[in-house]
Design goal:
Strand 1, helix 1 and strand 2 form a beta-alpha-beta unit. 25% of the residues lie in helices and 16% in strands. The protein has helices spanning 14-25, 48-52, 100-103, 118-132, 157-168, 204-213, 264-274, 339-347, 352-359, 395-414, 478-495; strands at 5-10, 30-33, 63-65, 68-70, 173-175, 218-221, 224-230, 240-245, 251-254, 256-261, 293-297, 312-314, 331-333, 362-367, 378-381, 387-390, 419-423, 461-463. The chain starts with a strand and ends with a helix. The protein has eleven helices and 18 strands. The strands form four sheets. Strands 5-12-13-14-11-17 form a six-stranded antiparallel sheet, covered by helices on one side. A five-stranded parallel sheet has the order 6-2-1-10-18, with helices on one face. Helix 4 (118-132) packs across helix 11 (478-495). The protein has a single domain (5-495), classed as FAD/NAD(P)-binding domain (3-Layer(bba) Sandwich). It is an alpha/beta fold.
């Protein structure tokens, strides 16, 4: 059989772009297939309405979410989620890979331990931080030889003050690891949701463009949608991948020696289901973190309406609070929401000048609650191949979210907040930190892919996005996705 490329990568986010970059640098011919437009075609720093109403940089497909059609807020341009994420790339802790000790009978025995443990990921986490240029310092969860890779952004004054004051009151805030280059950063007050205008924030798009500029063989094809994998009768290997040119409407085929599936925890299982996948785990156990948000309002200006303030995090509540000693996750600061978003969150009756006054004295924090996998939370293929998503948090998830919100309010008040406001759940179209729909494991009876992230049903296809997660971790998934993509790149090189 003649092949068009050694590797075809479907999706250009944290997993797809990182794997493509590594394999191209190893001498392989690589094509990256992205159904969205180039990030360069999106005018950066549009209005909030373009982001939250028109959803310009987000996926343009309708998704049926719990019976209601909507456009979910997942990256829809080159770079995928990394085109619009907030830049935080945080390491998971070793105990994240042994969830059974915390959840017991709440999760199946088959996923009490991840098939690949933290120490095996450690060199790839180090490598991923270098590739993504993450500003981070040595800490207990890092390897012994790890040190700061790139400089931090200058600390906003409110964060310096909060760091000092919280320490004196028994809280342990620290710098949030960010994949943002201070030399290029404009210190925008609203970073997440917008493609970065200077390329200061890491994205899969920038990584692939850099790889091309350096002369490596990576072909980035935008507006090119993967329709289905095609197998010949009585064969397990993929014969070719059917594609659609979204600009012309033409359909064509492409052959590669190996395929890397990195279209996201909704897009990846959807492609497999539309390809005739019958594995019972395909699309099951869809997860995304329950993330309570609490905003502290201060007497003095925080300058969150003028500059970048997403710079702090704490592990204090990772394994629970005094009121709820159950595993939760990290807490990290957020950019201050813009006036349009504040209006969408219920403050539209307040005049614009008053909303801007509130913004100038606000500092928000978000908690991450590791939601548990449930088979009934799933992605299915509906009519015409459209994604049908069902997801509900459990009472256990919600109880931990409420407890974490209470703890965050206590922390902010100790830091000087006069009052705190917040919410305990996300809007329907929010799908940040999605994972779990093609989880890996040692047996096809409980997992869709093996420990090398090779699909049991499609043995020449590897999963490189967050779909492979058996559980959702206590941190955002981007750094581990990138690390796992580097691991997969090594495995594929040996496989070939």
């Amino acid at each position: 059989m003649e092949y068009d490329f050694d590797i075809a990568v479907i999706g250009s986010g944290a997993g797809g772009a990182t794997a493509a970059d590594a394999l191209a640098r190893a001498g392989k011919s690589v094509v990256v297939l992205e159904r969205g437009r180039s990030s360069d075609e999106i005018v950066s720093h549009r209005t909030e309405a373009d982001v939250f109403l028109k959803k310009t940089p987000y996926d343009d497909r309708d998704v049926e979410v719990n019976g209601v059609c909507t456009r979910v807020m997942m990256g829809g341009v080159t770079g995928g989620g990394t085109a619009v994420f907030g830049g935080a790339m945080t390491r998971p802790l070793p105990d994240d890979f042994s969830p059974g000790k915390y959840y017991g009978d709440r999760i199946p025995r088959d996923i009490w331990e991840w098939p690949v443990q933290w120490n095996e990921y450690l060199p790839y986490l180090d490598q991923a931080e270098r590739v993504c240029k993450v500003s981070t310092l040595k800490s207990p969860q890092h390897s012994d030889d790890h040190s700061q890779i790139s400089p931090f952004l200058p600390m906003a004054r409110v964060n310096e003050w909060l760091l000092e004051r919280s320490k004196s009151r028994g809280f342990h805030l620290e710098r949030l690891p960010l994949a943002i280059d201070p030399a290029m950063c404009l210190h925008c007050d609203q970073c997440a949701g917008f493609p970065c205008p200077t390329g200061a924030r890491f994205s899969g798009h920038r990584l692939l463009k850099s790889c091309q500029r350096e002369g490596f063989s990576v072909d980035l094809r935008t507006m090119t949608e993967a329709i289905r994998f095609v197998k010949l009768p009585h064969q397990s290997a993929v014969d070719h991948l059917k594609l659609l040119d979204r600009r012309t409407g033409n359909r064509f085929a492409l052959r590669a020696r190996r395929y890397i599936l990195a279209a996201g925890a909704i897009g990846s299982p959807l492609l497999l289901l539309n390809s005739g996948a019958t594995h019972p785990q395909t699309g099951r156990n869809y997860m995304f973190h329950l993330s309570p948000v609490v905003a502290g309002l201060f007497a003095n200006r925080t300058e969150g309406d003028r500059t970048f303030v997403k710079q702090l995090c704490t592990y204090d509540f990772y394994f629970g609070t005094l009121d709820c000693p159950e595993k939760m996750g990290i807490v990290q600061s957020l950019p201050v929401p813009g006036p349009e978003l504040l209006a969408r969150q219920g403050l539209g009756f307040i005049p614009l000048r008053a909303r801007n006054l509130i913004r100038s004295r606000m500092l928000p924090f978000a908690g991450i609650v590791e939601d548990l996998p449930r088979p009934e939370n799933r992605v299915q293929a509906g009519p015409n191949g459209k994604a049908v998503l069902n997801h509900e948090f459990t009472d256990f998830d919600r109880r931990r979210g409420s407890a974490l919100a209470t703890a965050m309010k206590t922390m902010l008040r100790s830091g000087g907040a006069l009052m705190c406001v917040g919410r305990n759940s996300s809007p329907r179209e929010h799908v940040g930190h999605q994972c779990g729909t093609l989880r890996f494991g040692k047996s096809p009876s409980s997992a869709a892919c093996d420990p090398s992230c090779r699909l049991f049903e499609f043995p020449d296809v590897f999963v490189a996005d967050g779909s492979f997660f058996p559980t959702s971790l206590g941190v955002g998934p981007s750094l581990l996705i990138a690390a796992n993509a580097l691991r997969i790149a090594d495995l594929i090189q040996r496989d070939l």
